[in-house]
Structures are given as structure tokens and as C-alpha cells.
Amino acid sequence: xxxxxxxxxxxxxxxxxxxxxxxxxVGCASSPARDADVAVAVKPDTLRVLAWNVLHGANDVGQGxxxxxxxxxxSGADVxxxxxxxxxxxxxxxxxxxxxxxxxxxxWQGDSPHLCILTRYDIAETFAHEPWHGVGAxxxxxxxxxxxxxSIWLDYRAYITYALRENPDLSDxxxxxxxxxxxxxxxxxxxxxARLKALGQLESPIPVLVGGDWNTPSHLDWTxxxxxxxxxxxxxxxxxxxxxxxAGFIDxxxxxxxxxxxxxxxxxxxxxxxxxxxxxxxxxxxxxxLKDPVVDGSGGVDRTEPRxxxxxxxxxxxxxxxxxxxxxxxxxxxxxxSDHGAVLIEFGWTETEAR
Length: 355
Known about the structure:
Layout: E1 2-3, H1 6-22, E2 41-42, E3 46-53, H2 64-75, E4 79-83, H3 95-103, E5 106-108, E6 116-119, E7 122-128, E8 134-140, E9 146-153, H4 160-166, H5 172-177, H6 185-198, E10 208-213, H7 224-229, H8 239-246, E11 250-251, H9 252-256, E12 274-275, E13 278-279, E14 286-291, E15 308-320, E16 342-353
Parallel strand pairs: 3-4, 9-10
Antiparallel strand pairs: 1-2, 3-16, 4-6, 5-6, 7-8, 8-9, 10-14, 11-14, 12-13, 15-16
Helix pairs in contact: 2-3, 6-8
């Protein structure tokens, strides 16, 4: 282990930007965590996790599956939390299964019609939730460290940014109510948290990642500053992201990119700049959350040596495509095969003393 000083953080940032630049495909630039005044014991190895809703199994774009494969390869991801892993047109299987075959990886989709976890790591255990809203797995990396990863998707209806576009005079209360009345996003998020609790994963001794398409912005993005910049934002306590915070999760992109004005991290939508003949409601609706391990330092036993846990520290975040394609390019001819941006978070493994 070593202490990450300023020069080390600079090196990590340079590496992350170099890797992100390999894909001539977009995103918001990456950066390391900015807590440089706090010494962090971190191992020199990393974990790269990509969350991506690949539009309709990548079928809407010419050679879409091959283009999706290129994005994953160029991102350097170790794990992909995928949504819309549907059947590929023709004789090929579901997108996630085909990608895993091409990469020589493992995958888990279970009974879900579209949620998939792809990884180059071993899948040691799998977990099921509501088929449309969550699949999970315990993964074991090359060093034998375990962590849990979930791919999730929430209801797309009553998108609050569109609602505010259509009715600028909508009250704050009515806008927030769309998360549980006009849509079922908040109940779905609440049930995901309840499922994690029932599985004991909110008290897990290993890291837990939950990522995917939340179909709603975060309270960390709807702030006073952003309301001054974006014409369809307010400073509001948005309930879905707050539910994850209240369950003990951190928003990994906002850890490494804490300023939502300077680093918006937009994932909706690089493909469709207009919606219903009106300007798009650009937001960061695809996110990866992390919950640190919970380790009892004593375990009821008189210990002379403190226990340690392998935790994950967000180091850098990138949103693909790195450069948005021209708006007039037909969907069929796009290079980036989805309407959602893909979020890559690079983590560093850290040994921490048990609490």
C-alpha cells in the first residue's frame, strides 16, 4: 500500500484521461477525487465499471452490436451494468450474451428481459429482483476480492424535466410527486433498497455497487447554481437519489466531479437533441452508486489486531461518447449506438481498518 499524494493523484488523473481518450467517442472528462488533503491508503490496482443503457439491444444503429462491443473494449471496463440487453436482430442471442461471448467474459441476465451484468471476473453468486428493475451478482476479481454489483432500471414515464418544460408553473410539490404518482420510480427505488436490505447487503462486509438507468436526475444536480444555468431545473430535494443517499450510498460521479455546473455528466441524450419537437431535457440520469463495506471490528471476539476491509475509492469518471455526433446524422448511421451516454467510473482498491 502507499499514500496517494498530490503527484500520485495527478498521475492517476493523467492515466484516466489517456484511457478515456482512446475511444474517439464522447463523454465528460474524467478527474480524480479532490480530497487531496486527506491521506488515503490505496493499492495501485483499480476497478473500472461501466453503466450503460444500450438502446433496444443496439439494433437501431447499423452494426450496433459491433459498435457497442468497440465502446466496451475501448473503455477498458472490467464490469458492465447494462440495460436494454434485448435480442439482437437476426440469429444472434441477447446483446449481453453476445457481447460476453465476443469478449470471453461471464454474464448474468437471469429472468430479466433486459438487465445484464457483464464481467471479465468470476461470477460467484447471483441475485434476482423484479425482472424489469434489478439483477445482481457477487463478483470475484483477479486478486480474490469480492464485491456486489447490481444493474437497475426505473420507470421512464413522467420525466420531470419534460414536465417542467411543458408546464413551467408546475409547483415543486407536484413536480416531486411525479416520482411516485405519474411514474413508479420512487416506489421502484424503494423496493430495490428493501431487496438489498433483505439480502443483508446494506450491512455487507464487501462493497456494493448499484448502477444503471434511473430515468430521473439527482438532487446533487438540481441545485441553486444549476437552476441559474439550466432553464428547466430547480433547487429541489429529488427523492430517488435521496433514497440511495439515505440507504448509505454515494453517487460516485459526483464524488470525483463535485461541481454539476462545470461537470454536468449529461447522459440524456447525446443521440436525440430534440424531443416531441422541443428542446431535449438534458440530464445525468445514468448513475453508479457505491456503499462501503460494513465490518464489525470485533465480531464479538477479543482481537489484538484490527480487521481490515477492501473498499473502493472513486478516482475518476468519464461519460461516453466523449464528443457528441452532429445532430443531423441519422440514427442508423450513428457511431455511438445508443440514446444514453455510458458512465465509466474508475475505482481504486483501498485497505481500510474495520469500523
